[in-house]
Amino acid sequence: SSFTQVVHSAGRRFIVSPVPESRLREQ
Amino acid sequence: AEDTGVRVELAEEDHGRKSSIALRLWVEDPKKLKGKPKDNGAIEFTFDLEKETPDDVAQEMVDSGFFHESDVKIVAKSIRDRVALIQWRRERIWPMIQ
């Protein structure tokens, strides 16, 4: 799957997923 | 709220009851950041409106390598603006619960 998870030492989980194309501002 | 180039949105429906909510953050305009963000994925995390500060989360994101130290203030401000909007909306829609 295209989700990755990073857990910070303080315990918070960060779940990274692709930003939907529609939400990325045209560069 | 000022356009910081970093977008923060609710990652779930807010019913005004839980103090912790899921937020999603991603970089819309990398040119507005001082450092180069690690990748342009959306980062989802849980934030406790009562116990935590946006600065805590921003620093943890820098520690985790998502952002450069020089962008910690921009990330914190982006989260703070969204949290303020959520709290303002909660006060208006569910004044009794708050």
Protein model, in words:
The complex is a heterodimer of chains A (27) and B (98). Chain A has no helices and 2 strands. By secondary structure, chain A is mainly β. In chain A, strands 1-2 form a two-stranded antiparallel ribbon. The mean pLDDT of chain B is 93. Helices cover 33% and strands 21% of the residues of chain B. Chain B is built from 2 helices and 3 strands, in the order βββαα. The chains are: A mainly beta (27), B alpha+beta (98). At the A-B interface, strand 2 of A face strand 3 and helix 1 of B. Strand 2 (13-18) of chain A pairs antiparallel with strand 3 of chain B, so a sheet runs across the interface.
Strand order of the largest sheet of chain A: 1-2
Radius of gyration of chain A: 12 Å
Envelope shape of chain A: elongated
Q: Give the CA-CA distance, first to last residue of chain A.
A: 26 Å
> Given the helix and strand composition of chain B, which structural class is it?
alpha+beta
**Number of beta-strand segments of chain A:** 2
Question: Biggest β-sheet of chain A: count, sense, barrel?
Answer: 2 strands, antiparallel
Radius of gyration of chain B: 14 Å
The major sheet of chain B is characterized as: 3 strands, antiparallel
Please tally the helical runs of chain A, counting DSSP H or I stretches of 4 or more residues.
0
Beta-strand level of the residues of chain B, as a percent range?
15-25%
